[in-house]
């Protein structure tokens, strides 16, 4: 099995990376392959709603989004980590995720998702909520832990002192590993749940 880990921090070895590395060590012990992609230090523009991806099956801007898309398709799970900026995830990460989720034609159905946030003090639950919405609009089961998926600290060394936060990361990774394995077993035994996409509610007549 494979998990794709997206680090939305511009610091490849900072607070967010410390939390994600804690998860990666558990995935390794569970026999799950991981790849960490650093997004926060890249030049990634936002979606311009051109809908070219509907025809080309990829984003019109040929950058990291299109490079990562096949890895996302292949993965059984996706972990998204971000620092907190003004009570929200890193803007570069959000631009990346908007385009990645919208431009990819493949189904995300039953891929397991997990969001991780790091902060010095506040804004963590608001950022956590934003990241989880990418999963819940895409029919992706969301992995949880024994506390909200967050670590606290101003530096990576601070985060290493957040023993409960690191414990939360390890429990999150174990739960995510279990979910992925259970879904794989269920798919083989029962098949995946029925997936309806025919209805699209809109009110163009204003009524």
Task: Give an overview in words.
With 207 residues, the protein is α/β, with parallel strands linked by helices. Helices cover 44% and strands 16% of the residues. Strands 1, 2, 3, 4, 5 and 6 form a six-stranded mixed beta sheet that branches. α1 crosses α7 (163-190) and α3 (64-74) crosses α4. The mean pLDDT is 96.
What are the defining features of this structure?
7 helices, globular, single chain, 207 residues, alpha/beta, six-stranded mixed sheet, 6 strands
Briefly characterize the structure.
By secondary structure, the protein is of the alpha/beta class. The protein has helices at residues 15-29, 52-56, 64-74, 91-103, 124-136, 156-161, 163-190, and strands spanning 2-7, 33-38, 77-85, 88-89, 112-119, 150-152.
Number of discrete helical segments: 7
Backbone CA Rg: 17 Å
Element order, helices and strands?
Answer: EHEHHEEHEHEHH
Taking pLDDT < 50 over at least 5 consecutive residues as the criterion, the unreliable ranges are none
Structural topology:
Elements: E1 2-7, H1 15-29, E2 33-38, H2 52-56, H3 64-74, E3 77-85, E4 88-89, H4 91-103, E5 112-119, H5 124-136, E6 150-152, H6 156-161, H7 163-190
Helix pairs in contact: 1-7, 3-4
């Amino acid at each position: 099995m494979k998990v794709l880990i997206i680090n939305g921090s511009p610091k490849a070895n900072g607070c967010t990376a410390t939390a994600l590395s804690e998860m990666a060590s558990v995935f390794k012990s569970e026999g799950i392959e991981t790849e960490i992609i650093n997004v926060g230090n890249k030049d990634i523009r936002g979606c311009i709603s051109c809908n070219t991806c509907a025809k080309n099956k990829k984003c019109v801007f040929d950058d990291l989004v299109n490079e990562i898309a096949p890895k996302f398709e292949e993965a059984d799970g996706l972990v998204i980590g971000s620092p907190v900026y003004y009570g929200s995830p890193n803007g570069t990460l959000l631009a990346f995720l908007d385009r990645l989720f919208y431009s990819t034609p493949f189904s995300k159905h039953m891929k397991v998702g997990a969001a991780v946030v790091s902060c010095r003090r506040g804004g963590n639950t608001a950022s956590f909520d934003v990241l989880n919405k990418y999963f819940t609009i895409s029919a992706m089961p969301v992995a949880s832990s024994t506390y909200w998926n967050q670590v606290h600290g101003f530096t990576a060394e601070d985060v290493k002192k957040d023993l409960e936060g690191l414990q939360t990361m390890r429990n999150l990774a174990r739960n995510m590993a279990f979910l992925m394995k259970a879904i794989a077993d269920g798919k083989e035994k029962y098949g995946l749940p029925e997936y309806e996409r025919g209805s699209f509610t809109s009110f163009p007549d204003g009524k």
